[in-house]
From TrEMBL, chains A, B:
This is Coenzyme A disulfide reductase. Transmembrane segments: none annotated. It comes from Gimesia alba. The keyword Flavoprotein applies. Its EC number is 1.8.1.14. Pfam families: Pyr_redox_2, Pyr_redox_dim, Rhodanese. It comes from the Bacteria. One of its GO terms (molecular function) is CoA-disulfide reductase (NADPH) activity. Keywords: FAD, Flavoprotein, Oxidoreductase, Redox-active center. InterPro entries: FAD-bd_OxRdtase, FAD/NAD-bd_sf, FAD/NAD-binding_dom, FAD/NAD-linked_Rdtase_dimer_sf, Pyr_nucl-diS_OxRdtase_dimer, Rhodanese-like_dom, Rhodanese-like_dom_sf.
């Protein structure tokens, strides 16, 4: 369709994906008629900023309004209609029927191209008391306004957050900023379910260090209600929690009803099926954002990835393709995600060990815990970095990082390498920016790749952080002082620097695991042993420092 | 050669490359005899930390000693001999002759494999007065001790730093921390010669904002000496500077004499020629670090890259290859470098526009100036980001970034993409970690890639920051208030939001340039114009904000 042809584009939903689609469509087609329907009051607001607005870290509400209907009109000649609910799609007639929620009027609008960006709705489990007025979900600016107002008016002192995913954790942090005593409930046995348990444990410790009580492996079974207000929740494990506000952050359900009713194909993961240009099963109907399934870059199969980054990029592609019939294909997202929890940052890209197992991918994971920049430079902080890769090809599958500083950088480097289907060999040779305030000549990325490479080359074998250690002779090569602080119950102790002279104390016929604080000295020890007739030697990746988080019950 | 064969490895030079080689060689070959000769007093010290030790940002001297000879002995069974100067190599006999500088004794040592890691020596120009006792270079810990002691003993008040490269800038910053009034002299017409001029100008402004006087495009012609002490310098432009200490940071010369005398091949760039395993023209002699030429990852030709990262990685590879005859090949470095200058960080990877021109690579550069994280989140800082790419294939050639926050992350992402010979299309789809404290749903990387992609697709043409603007109709689409602040002398002014209604005020037959604050609104304007019959429209990349730095004389 050329620029001069008449063209009418309807966009349904005006937040990340829809707003991007609208602006891009205009820039690619000046003459098109573009109408954007939004069921709520606001378009193009910063939904990722909502928790921070509630917690007053973002002080001004109008900062959240990235673009107003006036700006869409003046700059992009786009007709934004808020509080308009699209109720049905007629594929053959190429129309939608729209309810103006301000007036109650129903109308039909025709389209040449239709872009659906309706997002997802927060899940609300059907529990007794769940309808109480002070049980909230957080999805749009109205929700944020309501929660903020409620907290103020009722001078809330105690909160329960249900769900320890990204939004749940952001809400816990921000409620804590408001000096509200907050407890967190999560059905899984760990916080941050996208991470592996030992990495998530670091985040859990940060929560408890800030007096957030964390209830894991248990569900809310009922909301206790008095005078139509929630006053607490009952957990499956018998615990009662008192609270004067309840926030639900247990996930979202893709808004697919409209598409489904119109006969548009829904994928196996429950999202709208789209191709690389965001076309649905009807080639003139596009869908983007939290309601769709993207091809996951590592899994190479459809996956729901309800995150802002892919939504924005997909919106842009759909907007261009809708008005020009061409665009550069969507690059598969990797499920990269990040969250700040008080002083810590936790992030993931690609597959965790858990997700690799679940999708039956052969996998191996190493953990390194170097400083985020040169150790000799002030302010160096430990970075817990887990790299998961294919044990046969060395292909990177994913990474997780938790630390006070430098987490986002390392995850972005891995996300970039994932795009190119890079291997651990590639990572070992990356020419990353180094000066003492920013990194190390051997960056945490390099260190992880070196460890993985040594494992792949069988220079040393690593044993994973959660492996069964029974039946092994455990050789702790730390100093006496370190061993005295915390240790496994049954170990042999020889400091690494004495090992060459004390090999006779060990039984070379027995399978042996070397361990130190983070894994570096244990690697040196493993190499000495392996070259001295010890054939079955493995180095415990992440060392004792990681074991404290992987097997906390042993050291508590 | 198998692990059990006798093997003797001599390593010459014990800092970044040599120390890495030694440790790796041991881990790969427990039985080898490994001797490390170092001409100075210390091995494995943190040379990148020296400026910060002088400036007392690193308070403890012993933090700089990463590994001592004792640690090398105890942990790695490596015989470290400091103050031993290797004077010659006998290739046929496979020996070196060594001077023990403590005793004056000369000896011969045989080797099966020899690894040269002798670094480079600071350049000292043959100027009158240059031999004065208080004209210093900074290369090793003794240099740092001497400078530190001199400053203290003589209560230095005024310093001149000669050379505005990475070390020069670090020294300026650190001397300023000591409350020493510091002036900077650079032969090039800009600071930080690896960067393009307008990007370097941002750094220059940061220096002058901290009362550092910067003398560009002029050389030191003489050091003024009184009582055998430097009391200042004379510049080629006639300026005299008073100072009680002079620091030279004008570059380094690779230490190739030993290799050259032994008949080892020297490359065209003046460094020792090596292959991907760091083997010199004599396959049993390896060389690494500042004395060699690496294959540059973008130029794909040999280049001297005297930086710590490549030295460490090359050392590790050479150490393994020397004792096992195999290793994973060195991945070509990209010349990635970074420096903190007061509150700013400046970094580069791959080619700048300048280096692309110099090496006759077709190139095009876009500049974006977004916030380093979500604009609505507190603490968002402007990030000046320049992306250089091949205008035909879209292949990334390099990037430069200057800003208060987030510089290292973006440069590392580009350095990673360069490894994979990525294109701007790849960058546009990277799944980077996003939450408001860490980035934007459309990251600066994406924004730059979008701009470059639009240019490549001829959606809009960008005009480069340093292009000749004469003969163009310039359309400034900013608000009246912005235009009043600073503007080009001859412009047409139509705010972008009024453009559709005022097209008749413009001459569509004339080549036209759109400009706004950073380039975003000018892009929207260019699209409107291009679709309204204006065939020759270009968008000034980086906008007026970058013009202030590219053509400061116009606005001063």
């Amino acid at each position: 369709m050329s620029d001069t042809e008449a063209m009418k584009v309807i966009i349904v939903g005006g937040v990340a994906g829809g707003a991007s689609a609208a602006a891009r469509a205009r820039r690619c087609h000046e003459a098109a008629e573009i109408i954007l329907f939004e069921k709520d009051e606001y378009v193009s607001f910063a939904n990722c900023g909502l928790p921070y607005y509630i917690g007053e870290e973002i002080a001004e509400r109008n900062k959240l309004l990235v673009a107003t209907p006036e700006l869409f009109k003046n700059r992009f000649n786009i007709d934004v209609r808020t509080r308009h609910l699209v109720q049905s799609i007629n594929q053959e007639q190429k129309t939608v029927s729209v309810l103006n929620q301000k007036t109650g009027a129903l109308s039909e609008e025709s389209w040449d191209r239709l872009i659906l960006s309706m997002g997802a709705a927060p899940l609300v489990p059907p529990l007794p008391g769940i309808d109480a007025g002070n049980v909230f979900t957080l999805r749009n600016l109205n929700d944020a306004d309501t929660i903020k107002e409620y907290i103020k008016q009722h001078n809330c002192q105690r909160a329960v957050v249900v769900g320890a995913g990204f939004i749940g954790l952001e809400m816990v942090e921000q409620l804590h900023c408001l000096q509200i005593e907050t407890e967190l409930v999560e059905l899984q046995p760990q916080v941050l379910p996208p991470l592996d348990p030992e990495m998530a444990r670091l985040v859990q410790n940060e929560l408890t260090a800030h007096d957030v009580k964390v209830h894991l492996g248990t569900a809310v079974e009922a909301v206790n209600v008095e005078d139509s207000k929630a006053v607490g929740v009952e957990l499956g494990n018998g615990t009662s929690i008192t609270a004067d506000i309840v926030i639900l952050g247990i996930g979202v359900a893709p808004a697919i009803e409209l598409a489904k009713a119109a006969g548009i194909e829904i994928g196996n993961c429950g999202g709208i099926a789209v191709n690389e240009f965001m076309q649905t099963s009807h080639s003139h109907i596009y869908a983007v954002g939290d309601a769709v399934e993207y091809t996951h870059g590592v899994l190479e199969q459809p996956q729901r990835i309800p995150l802002a980054g892919p939504a924005n990029r997909a919106g842009r592609i759909s907007g261009q393709h809708a008005v020009t019939d061409s665009a550069h294909a969507m690059i598969a997202p990797m499920g990269t995600a990040i969250v700040r929890v008080f002083g810590l940052t936790a992030a993931v890209t690609g597959l965790s060990k858990k997700t690799a197992e679940r999708s039956q991918r052969k996998n191996r994971s190493v953990i390194v815990i170097p400083k985020h920049h040169a150790g000799y430079f002030p302010g160096a902080e430990s970075l817990f970095f887990k790299l998961t890769y294919d044990p046969e090809t060395g292909q990177i599958l994913g990474a997780q990082a938790v630390g006070k500083e430098g987490v986002d950088k390392r995850i972005d480097v891995i996300a970039t390498a994932l795009k190119f289907k890079g291997t651990i060999r590639d990572l070992a040779g990356l020419d990353l920016a180094y000066a003492p305030p920013f990194g190390s000549a051997k960056d945490p990325i390099h260190m992880a790749a070196f460890v993985a490479g040594n494992d792949l080359d069988q220079l040393t074998s690593i044993i994973e952080v959660d492996a069964d250690l029974s039946g092994y002779q455990i050789l702790d090569v730390r100093s006496q002082k370190e061993v005295d602080t915390f240790r496994f119950p049954e170990i042999t102790h020889i400091p690494v620097d004495e090992l060459r002279g004390r090999l006779h104390e060990l039984d070379a016929s027995q399978p042996l695991i070397t361990v130190c604080h983070t894994g570096l000295r244990a690697y040196v020890a493993a190499r000495i042993l392996k070259q001295s007739g010890f054939e079955n030697v493995q180095n415990l990746t992440g060392g004792m420092l990681m074991q404290r988080h992987a097997r906390p019950e042993m050291f508590e």
